[in-house]
Amino acid sequence: MFSHIALSLVASLGILAATAHAVDAQTTPAPGATQAQSATPQKPRWEVLIPSGTAVPTVTKGNTIKRGNLTAVQLSYVVRPNLAITSTLGWIRSRDIASAGSPKLDIFTYDLGAEVRAPRLTARKRLTFSPFAGAGAGGRSYNYRSLEVNATHNLGAYVSAGGALGLGRVGLRLEVREYVTGFKPLGGQGSTRARNDVVVMVGLRVTMP
């Protein structure tokens, strides 16, 4: 299972890298009130984002885990205007609906990925919009909040898409991710299987000087 995830991830990152190179080589300023961001070289910079959202399991996984609210912290290193490396740490508050009493379940997600960002479109000189796509890999940990059961840990990967609306150093960012993760039975018994879920995140992004 994880060999297929790894192959998919490598292929996705290869496509992203090729796209980033092509965009970087072809980007030129466009005239008019709405134009692409100038291709003038920029120094690498950091971005900080604290998004919130929701994690929606697919039908198979949804028979075990309830949809949960998500709080996350993201740190991005913008290598160039169209390429960023993003690390995400998230906490999903859910329930194990397959067990008696539907006990509360904390799900911790942690991953690292790459993003290809389209040239920023500028309107009225200051307001910008930039769509993006990405891929990454990391892990998930499942832990009952009040039961004496060992936590389970799983590998996973994701693909993402979204957009950022910016005004100076502050922006509003929306991101949708589809995760493929390993999933062990929460009791610790049984084999690991692949599961999918969709995560939607929105939050304010701050670009460091």
Describe the protein.
- The protein has helices spanning 2-26, 59-62, and strands at 35-36, 45-49, 52-57, 68-80, 83-95, 104-117, 121-123, 127-144, 152-167, 170-183, 193-207.
- With 209 residues, it is mainly β.
- It has one domain: Porin (Beta Barrel), CATH 2.40.160.20.
- Strands 1, 2, 3, 4, 5, 6, 7, 8, 9, 10 and 11 form an eleven-stranded antiparallel sheet that branches.
- The longest helix is centred in the first third of the chain and has 25 residues, at 2-26.
- The model is unreliable at 1-39 (pLDDT under 50).
Secondary structure elements and pairings:
Elements: H1 2-26, E1 35-36, E2 45-49, E3 52-57, H2 59-62, E4 68-80, E5 83-95, E6 104-117, E7 121-123, E8 127-144, E9 152-167, E10 170-183, E11 193-207
Antiparallel strand pairs: 1-7, 2-4, 2-11, 3-4, 3-11, 4-5, 5-6, 6-8, 7-8, 8-9, 9-10, 10-11
Labels describing this entry:
elongated; single chain; mainly beta; Porin; disordered N terminus
Summarize the structure.
This protein has 209 residues and is mostly beta strands. It is built from 2 helices and 11 strands; from the N terminus they run H-E-E-E-H-E-E-E-E-E-E-E-E.
Cα(first) to Cα(last) distance is 42 Å
Summed up, the domain count is 1
Main β-sheet, in a few words? Answer: 11 strands, antiparallel
Task: Report strand %.
Answer: over 45%
Which oligomeric state applies? single chain
CATH class: Mainly Beta
The CATH topology comes to Porin
Classification by helices and strands? mainly beta
Low-confidence stretches: 1-39
Order of helices and strands: HEEEHEEEEEEEE
Summarize model confidence as the mean pLDDT.
80
Number of helices: 2
- Percent helix range: 10-25%
What is the approximate shape? elongated
Radius of gyration over C-alpha positions, nearest whole angstrom = 19 Å
Q: Write down how many β-strands occur, each being a DSSP E stretch of 2 or more residues.
A: 11
CATH architecture: Beta Barrel
